[in-house]
């Protein structure tokens, strides 16, 4: 199993950060290895909301479906892969912090098969990916005009 946790403070209100991160389609703007994301369920976001995504991982395209398994507006959002060669769970925690919102992301991956053989490399890539992409998210949200 691979587990990595990273926190960052974003100078924006919790409501804005949660709304942006909670719509996984926005990941195309801040996640460098994300190639496509589509919401596959209708209605308001919440437990049971599903997306399909395509991500490039270690030079290979990987398509998977995720489903929200925890959803508390402006507090927590967790989704789990439901169709992938590498089961994973990603949790987001949103907290008030001096200067805006502390966003903490925890990713747990369970690589098997070929990916299991590359677990140490995957773990290093995940740490680098989280560092780079959370920095991009922070820059993107902090450069936006506040909604009126």
Describe this structure in words.
This protein has helices at residues 14-22, 27-30, 113-117, 119-143, and strands at residues 2-10, 34-39, 50-57, 60-72, 76-83, 88-97, 100-109. With 148 residues, the chain is α+β, with helices and mostly antiparallel strands. Strands 1-7-6-5-4-3-2 form a seven-stranded antiparallel β-sheet, covered by helices on one side. The longest helix is centred in the last third of the chain and has 25 residues, at 119-143. The radius of gyration is 15 Å and the shape is globular. The model has no long low-confidence stretch (mean pLDDT 88).
Task: Describe the structure using short key phrases.
about 150 residues, alpha+beta, seven-stranded antiparallel beta sheet, 7 strands, about 45% strand
């Amino acid at each position: 199993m691979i587990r990595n946790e990273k926190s960052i403070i974003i100078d924006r209100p919790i409501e804005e950060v949660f709304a942006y991160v909670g719509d996984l389609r926005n990941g195309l703007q801040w996640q460098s290895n994300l190639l496509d994301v589509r919401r596959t369920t209708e209605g308001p976001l919440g437990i049971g909301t599903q997306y399909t995504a395509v991500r490039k991982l270690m030079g290979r395209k990987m398509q998977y479906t995720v489903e929200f398994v925890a959803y508390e507006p402006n507090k927590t959002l967790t989704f789990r892969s439901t169709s992938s060669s590498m089961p994973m769970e990603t949790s987001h925690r949103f907290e008030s912090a001096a200067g805006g919102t502390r966003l903490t992301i925890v990713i747990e991956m369970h690589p098997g098969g070929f990916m299991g053989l590359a677990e140490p490399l995957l773990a290093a890539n995940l740490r680098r990916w989280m560092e780079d992409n959370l920095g991009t998210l922070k820059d993107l949200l902090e450069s936006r005009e506040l909604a009126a």
